[in-house]
Design brief:
The protein has about 425 residues and is α/β, with parallel strands linked by helices. It has 19 helices and 8 strands.
């Protein structure tokens, strides 16, 4: 389970474990049913991902309540370690031992959908769709495949922190931080100019999420190829090259990690950085001057929608107890149970209306609440920009080509053409 840090969530839950699930087809033609309307009964297995250590009482209670609500059901809970989770799913899928209800992120869901192992909820559980935020529900869809294949579970996102003191010194309004990429580029160039290149606004090169938030079409509609080398994609990378040349993008951005860019923000060498409530506590202790000048704003986006990270709960299409498996997956992710889980750990419910709860809207003077409110507000119409088919290898390919463009070794157009070509090849290998 990710810690409350949005960054940890992004890295641990959506990046570090994205391994290709090979051999996930099965010769079994399936004994399950898409009909979830029958009696809710039978023994089912529920698999989570690294949650037992911190949340055993929560899940024990959840399961006991479900079994009480539906006499005749029994839920066996299995929790797998974070390490090797994708490999475990792959082995279970190949061996026909996949549990009935499985905790997945969209990138781990995709190969299971392609292998025909995930139940289409648009067919089996369409009546529940209105209970969830639109962006969270569509986040469980796979390009090129009709249907929705997991109930949305918890969400995460993070605001941008900015240094009001550095904005002021550069002649920028400390109470009006940039909201769109165009505003960001204008402010960043002014910041670099006024500080003689000593203060960069950003410490990170653009990722696939940045292209998404800029309004670039990331994939073709069929999900068979990437498209971020279009005119808009080239425009974004060209702007970043201007920032890099002007030292408005930190020179070390090419090799930056979330930790190193966080440190640069802490030492006031960079004016903006994504973060979490944990960072605020850190600033208070380690950088009181920064803390007193801290501003909190939304992620930069030119589409009006910020990025969300989303978890899901999938039903095995071959379960022998479809009504019970669907009922339990829905129960885990319903508004009441998501809300109680959100109060135990810094995540956000994907259910419609939950983000209007006072827990996500009412200030109490603490930093943690301040960040939680800012993040919750932006999540209401957020989308998951990272394509579900975008693997770690693809992220590396894009990063390498972006670096070449920023260093002037390739034009932005050539760099993105090469990145798309490399990612398309990797996509073909995924099968």
């Amino acid at each position: 389970m990710p810690t409350p840090s949005r960054r940890t969530f992004a890295v641990a839950a959506l990046a570090a474990l994205v391994l290709p699930l090979s051999a996930c087809g099965s010769s079994d033609d399936g004994s399950g049913s898409t009909d979830a309307s029958g009696k809710v009964e039978g023994d089912i297995t529920f698999q989570t991902w690294n949650l037992r250590a911190n949340f055993k009482p929560y899940f024990d209670g959840l399961i006991a309540d479900f079994e009480k609500k539906y006499p005749g059901t029994h839920v066996k809970w299995i929790d797998q370690p974070a390490e090797g989770y994708a490999d475990k799913l792959s082995a279970d899928a190949a061996g026909g031992t996949l549990p009935d209800v499985v905790n997945v992120s969209p990138d781990l869901l995709a190969p299971l959908v392609k292998a025909g192992l995930a139940l289409d909820l648009d067919k089996a559980a369409a009546k529940y769709r209105p209970e969830y935020l639109d962006g969270a529900w569509t986040g469980q869809q796979i390009p090129g495949v009709g249907g929705t294949y997991a109930f949305p579970w918890y969400l995460n996102t993070g605001p941008m922190f900015y240094n009001k003191g550095l904005f002021k010194k550069a002649g920028l309004d400390p109470d009006s931080p940039p909201k769109t990429y165009d505003e960001l580029f204008t402010d960043a160039l002014q910041m670099a100019q006024k500080s003689n290149g000593k203060v960069a606004t950003l410490a990170n090169v653009p990722t696939v999420e940045d292209f998404g938030r800029y309004g670039v079409e990331l994939m073709n509609k069929q999900g068979t190829g990437f498209a971020f080398n279009d005119a808009k994609g080239v425009e974004l990378l060209t702007k970043y090259k201007e920032l890099y040349d002007a030292k408005a993008l930190d020179p070390q951005a090419l090799t930056a990690t979330p930790e190193s860019s966080g440190k640069m923000f802490l030492t006031e060498a960079v004016a903006m950085n994504p973060g979490s409530a944990l960072d605020l506590e850190n600033f208070k202790k380690q950088a009181p001057n920064l803390y007193k000048n801290i501003g909190i704003t939304d992620q930069i986006t030119s589409t009006g929608h910020v990025n969300m990270y989303v978890m899901g709960v999938m039903v095995n299409s071959r379960t022998k107890h479809t009504p019970a498996a669907v009922a339990f997956a829905h129960y885990v992710t319903d508004a009441q149970n998501q809300m109680s889980f959100a109060k135990q750990v810094a995540i956000f419910p994907s259910t419609a209306g939950s983000l209007d709860d006072p827990y996500f809207t009412k200030e109490d003077g603490t930093d943690e609440t301040r960040v939680r409110i800012a993040a919750a507000k932006s999540l209401k119409n957020a989308v998951n920009y990272t394509p579900v088919l975008f693997s770690d290898q693809m992220k590396t390919a894009l990063r390498n080509e972006v670096a070449k463009a920023l260093q002037g070794k390739e034009s932005p157009k050539a760099a993105l053409d090469n990145a798309v070509k490399a990612c398309d090849q990797l996509l073909q290998q995924q099968g």
